[in-house]
Design brief:
The chain is of the alpha+beta class and 138 residues long. It has one domain. It is built from 3 helices and 3 strands. It has helices at 2-55, 60-64, 72-86; strands at residues 90-95, 98-108, 119-129.
Length: 138
């Protein structure tokens, strides 16, 4: 009888250890997952603002000629400058009249690091086009 009781006590201890690891992983998913969602929103905000900053850079030469066109060099420079001021790394592409910005970052984990996941990779991209003029249908 004592032998069976000792085996049951050992199996309960093993079950409790497994349960503790599972609960820790669940807490990690909630805490670190929530932080990664917030970080993704911040990355998206930075990408959108950088794209808007770039899309506002119009060509002076084209404006003097009566056209509203983007200055690609100034657009890329303004978007990169915004990213630098926000303290994030990203890539900027200007194609035609559209500025596209991609922000990539790594969010360090708190609890998930205990189970081997040290960082969560986050990526966000946004595009902007300068809209000008007013159209109205009568």
């Amino acid at each position: 009888m004592t032998d069976t009781g000792e085996r049951e006590a050992g199996s309960i201890a093993a079950f409790m250890a497994l349960l503790a690891v599972a609960l820790l992983a669940l807490v990690g998913l909630v805490v670190d997952g929530g932080r990664s969602v917030a970080a993704r929103q911040e990355a998206l905000d930075d990408a959108q603002q950088a794209a808007r900053a770039g899309a506002g850079q119009l060509s002076i030469v084209a404006l003097r000629a009566g056209q509203v066109l983007l200055d690609p060099g100034a657009a890329a420079s303004a978007a990169r400058k915004y990213l630098a001021s926000a303290g994030v790394d990203g890539t900027v592409a200007v194609i035609g009249q559209e500025v596209t910005v991609q922000v990539d970052l790594q969010e360090p984990t708190t609890f998930l690091g205990l189970v081997g996941l040290r960082t969560i990779n986050i990526s966000a991209d946004a595009s902007a086009t300068n809209v000008h003029g007013v159209t109205r249908e009568d």
